[in-house]
Design goal:
The structure is a homodimer.
Chain A (H helix, E strand, L loop, with lengths): L5 E6 L3 E7 L2 H6 L7 E3 L2 H10 L4 E5 L1 H11 L4 E4 L6 H12 L3 E2 L11 E7 L5 E6 L13 H5 L1 E7 L6 H16 L3 E5 L10 H9 L5 E5 H8 L4 H9 L4 E5 L5 E5 L2 E5 L13 H14 L4 H15 L11 H4 L3
Parallel strand pairs in A: 1-5, 1-9, 2-7, 3-8, 5-6, 9-10, 10-11, 11-12
Antiparallel strand pairs in A: 2-4, 7-8, 12-13, 13-14
């Protein structure tokens, strides 16, 4: 394997988060399941937005948040995702560049606008996400920079983009390119991939050896594997991937790799404000530590520290100096 | 005077704030004067934005912030200002509506984009503002809703809009309409109105009886009046307006009205995060209290409490329940 130009390149949704607080009644009146993510049409997003409180806009997108974290940890990160030629697209691109993440996917004109995610944060700091993916789902394999993928130690793929046809093909192509160059492919599950009708496809992808490192939360891996106990889930995943990482919210995280297992407690946080991005930043910390040659336990600790920073403020991108918090 | 439909209607910049943190060196390298506001061309704004860190976007605009505060205090507020038909314009309009502020100025197509203010917040919580006013300066008297002004107890005018010709004419027209209906006209100074070449015009407006209630900070009223001592400044202003209110940052605020004076200390804040909007929210609290018939001292206290909330977080709009903090 030749030396890498980047530590991690991610493919994911290019999205601006629109974050407002609300009470539990607001969710229940609209039939929104707390903590979930649902896709919205443009009309549905407009209706929900009109009903939402005054908001702040902060760049988001699951894998993009992870790359913000990887860059904040001092590693070389790149991102591929589809924005449109509009103001939200400009904001997304600016924030990637400002964080030191290379982002060069050309914007699309004349199609859907840049994606946005309407995030409702309840007083218990839980986030309920309502995504209008817009241009994000128009990403094609054609937009990929093959040389970038070949020259990155890890290619990180976002589960949310596995649903729509075009970006799924782009991600599978990216995995193929990465493996042909002897690189590692990581994948983060999303809730919607674990439901019947979807899970079979995801399991098939895992069985075909497409993914080396898999991230998921407890609910996701239970639904995906059909197992109840956490160790059964890990065993089931470990047969299909080299490394499986399961995040458990306040209960910490566990990982299994090459027969070894490790566990970490969640890092205490003075005040949890908004859990958006906890999983994204966990993955960032874990992957960054792995790129720096740390073992499984140290990598879980790095993930846990990065996640703790993300949930202590609104928005999923790091605000504090992550390098000071997670010393790699 | 007939009963009012609104307590306050404001005319001001319709702007989205783009807020990033930076260190002092970033300001000095670019010759930016900490705490000041400068106007930028589109090109200048693009250059500064490219150099800025990753940002959060929150609706702003001085008088619009004040109306957000007035509405949050439970009073009926309306706003007139010019947005364009673009995503930032949609964000601005949404946030006004979500806060309960009536905002019905039709957006402009084909002109400049919705205005934005690049706000750099240094570790000492001071804000340095770089405004690209865009559509905001295209507001004309034609866009005003005369009936709305006639039916509002107070018409609140923003000093930043006094510089450009079209909105200045709109504001002077609004003052005329308000006075013809026996209403009160308030005006908030801006730094740029107090420099030689501008101050003569502002003093002329004050002398002609256009303004009943004037807000300014200590620097502004010193430069405007040419007086040194604060009581001299107040005396000089009180000859021209019914009520003069001078904010003094950490030193509190003073006011003079009908020969009476009152003073308030600044409310202690656990951690000052971002001073953007302190003056805007002070004006909101003061005017809301006056609308509810409170005396000068109580009105200063209300202003001081509202300002304290605004500086405890990023962004100029209230985040906590202002009605709980300022009981009117």
């Amino acid at each position: 394997m030749t030396s890498s130009q980047f530590d991690v390149v991610a493919i994911g949704d290019a999205i601006v988060d629109v974050i407002a607080t609300c009470d539990d009644a607001f969710l229940s009146e609209r039939g929104l399941v707390k903590g979930s993510m649902q896709l919205l049409s443009t009309g549905g997003a407009d209706d929900l937005y009109a009903a939402m409180g005054s908001a702040r806009e902060i760049s988001g997108g699951s894998a993009a948040n992870s790359m913000a974290g990887v860059a904040a940890l001092g590693l070389r990160a790149a991102f591929a995702g589809q924005i449109a030629t509009d103001q939200l697209g400009d904001i997304f691109a600016h924030d990637m560049a400002a964080l030191g993440v290379q982002f060069a996917t050309p914007p699309l004109s004349g199609g859907p606008p840049t994606g946005r995610c309407l995030i409702l944060v309840t007083p218990d700091a839980q986030r309920t996400m309502n995504t209008c993916p817009g241009a994000s789902h128009e990403l094609t394999a054609h937009a990929l920079d093959e040389e970038l993928i070949r020259s990155s130690t890890v290619t990180f793929l976002e589960g949310y983009l596995w649903g729509p046809e075009k970006p799924r093909q782009a991600m599978l192509k990216a995995a193929e390119i990465a493996h042909s160059a002897g690189r590692t492919v990581a994948f983060t599950l999303s809730e919607s991939l674990c439901i019947p009708g979807r899970r079979e496809g995801v399991l098939g992808m895992l069985e075909s050896g497409t993914i080396d490192v898999l991230f998921g939360n407890e609910d996701e891996v239970r639904q995906l594997t059909g197992c109840q106990g956490l160790s059964d889930c890990l065993q089931a995943l470990a047969q299909r991937v080299r490394t499986a990482v399961v995040t458990r919210g306040a209960a910490g995280a566990v990982a299994m790799s090459g027969g070894a297992t490790a566990e970490v407690q969640a890092k205490p946080v003075a005040r949890i404000v908004d859990t958006t991005g906890a999983g994204d930043l966990f993955a960032a910390g874990f992957i960054a530590a792995q790129c720096r040659g740390r073992d499984l336990a140290d990598s879980l600790t790095a993930g846990s520290l990065a996640a703790a920073e993300a949930i202590s403020h609104f928005g999923a991108r790091p605000e504090a100096d992550l390098k000071e918090i997670v010393r790699l």
